[in-house]
Amino acid sequence: MNPITDAPITMQRVGFVGTGIMGLPMAGHQARAGLRVRAWNRTPAKAAPLAALGVELVAQAREVAAGSDAVICMLSSGPACDEVLLGPAGVISAMRPGALLAVMSSIPVETARQQAHAAREHGIHYIDAPVSGGEKGAREAALAIMVGGDASAWEMAVPLLRVMGRPTHVGPAGCGQLAKLVNQMMVAANIASVAEAMLMAERGGADPARVREALLGGFADSTALRQHALRMIQADFTPGGPAKYQLKDTYTATAMAKTLGLSLPMLNVAHGLFADMVASGDGELDHSAIIAHLRRINALPGSQSADINAFD
């Protein structure tokens, strides 16, 4: 692995595909870094705020590739990425040889490897570089970025990725997605555990907000305790990380575990909880709303779907 350097950004023209909750601020950071950015989003209105930063908005995804030194993809799933990137009319076919494709979406490991193969056939450098940190990390350019790809693609990508957060090279193509699966396994189990802890504190007669405060800095401290427990206490489930995407990732992780011959009980429990939550109609809520599902299981007040009043 090569260390991250302070190398200047040599690629000046960047195409950006997917400007949703995460992609919008990420593309904005590229523009603020002085790069010439061309962006596309399936719903054009979601990309509109970038125009104020000088970003050129285009009507077709493949148009972002015209003249671009690099294309960054931040779509919602593996199938969405494949639809836009692959095929005769896809973005890859429109990219110039020697350019870089950085897929920062969370997609299956095998999908990333197949995309890397397709990119190589067109003479394009490829990295899979999924992120962690949520909307807050995207806005603050503080994302943890897990990068899979060969050494030459990594070296090309580092300056661009540093504009959005902290990149780490973890192995060849597909390994970025593997690292993200590990991350999502831990996130899902941690958020569910924090929700159970908050309910236990409340049911036992303690003030959940004060319990959270008491735990900060101890062995139970975590980003989930700091950010998501607060959301649970305040009943603020505006999606930063929608539960349906958490479920997508735990589903992918369970499938990967099976291919590796692993039995992972904690992953299976967390996956089941989020599957039930989404099935109950709360998939568009933030994943911290898992507390609503736990309330339903326990028939506690505030357990109605999408009408959640925690700790009343």
How does this structure look, described?
The protein has helices spanning 23-32, 44-47, 78-85, 91-94, 109-121, 134-139, 151-162, 175-203, 208-215, 223-234, 243-259, 265-282, 290-297; strands at 13-17, 36-40, 56-57, 70-73, 100-103, 125-128, 131-132, 143-148, 165-171. The longest helix has 29 residues, at 175-203. Helix 8 crosses helix 10, helix 8 packs across helix 11 and helix 9 packs antiparallel against helix 10. The chain is an alpha/beta fold and 312 residues long.
- What is the helix content? 40-55%
Helix/strand order: EHEHEEHHEHEEHEHEHHHHHH
Mean pLDDT: 92
Order of strands, widest sheet:
3-2-1-4-5-6
The total count of strands amounts to 9
Poorly predicted runs are 1-5, 306-312
- Cα shape: globular
Amino- and carboxy-terminal Cα gap: 51 Å
Structural class of the secondary elements?
Answer: alpha/beta
Per DSSP, the total helix count is 13
- Our estimate of the beta-strand percent is 5-15%
Radius of gyration: 20 Å
Largest sheet: 6 strands, parallel
Could you provide a short overview of the structure?
With 312 residues, this protein is an alpha/beta fold. The protein has helices at 23-32, 44-47, 78-85, 91-94, 109-121, 134-139, 151-162, 175-203, 208-215, 223-234, 243-259, 265-282, 290-297; strands at 13-17, 36-40, 56-57, 70-73, 100-103, 125-128, 131-132, 143-148, 165-171.
List the defining traits of the structure above:
312 residues; alpha/beta; 6-stranded parallel beta sheet; 3-stranded mixed beta sheet; 48% helix; globular; disordered N terminus; disordered C terminus
